[in-house]
Amino acid sequence: MKANVLVLGASGLVGRRLTALLAQSDWAAPIAASRRPGAGTMGAPARQLDATDARGMAAALDGVTAVVNCIAGDPRDIAAGARVLADSARARGGDLHVVHLSSLAVYGSATGTVDESAPLRADHSAYGSAKVAAERSIAALAQSTILRPGIIYGPGSPWWTERIGRLLRTRRLGDLGPAGMGFCNLVHVDDVAAATVAVLRRGPVDADVFNLSTPRPVTWNEYFSAFAAALGAAPVRRVSPARLAVECRLIGPPLRALELLSNRFPSLDVPVPPAIRPWLLALCRQDLYTSVERIRTRLGFKFMGLEEGLRDTATAMKATAGRESCR
User: What is the pLDDT of residue 325?
Assistant: First the structure.
């Protein structure tokens, strides 16, 4: 009999990929749960669920053997959803394997190389604080596994692929000099889904935690250059501090306002150039590298090479651009 696996946040980037991967297996029967209806993929049944609704969560856990929490978005929902999930799992009697997708944001302002034993720091952003709170809720469960992915790129990644790709193509991003020498802890979306499947197959072991990132440190400058090359937008140009200041202080705010307006009125269908946000530039400077030795040694997990991942990503972006140009 197949294991029923509930995927929370199944309409998101990782949730969609994971649901599809589980549906292709011979051992799992995924249930795609999302606040938005119709989140099922690859024939998986869909369930509309607000993860912050305790009664709805308790009903959704009935009959499942494992649940994967891929909830993203609003920080309040991230923290509240994890708390409701932990309470519901505990009320069931502790027989449920909970796999929780966290983030490297839980390391906050830490610098240098960090492994899974590093202290959690809620000192960097509201998002990071919410991820810390969520982890603490899930870590209290004996049968839990926490995954801490880095920068999730790959086809369909709105922030780290689509936006970055558009900025590189228009030459608004490139070599940032010293401002881009922080480590870019990339992980392909397929690796996140595959790692989740690996821990589901293994089962819970003492509330384990795993970082997910490229084994070889890559700076943001290196990422931008390699991605631009894959997109056919190389060589990248040097972007000066003065230009970055103009982007953040003068160009960014109106573009952000237009983006919010476009999201509120999608029927307008007006393409808005992406804004370069101050938090992105702060991330590009952070000297933080997440070690992934734990998942490599304990589970024998092998990550996709960056060249392969960027080739796959660029091919998907070019195909999407081609379809849009034919409209």
Answer: 46
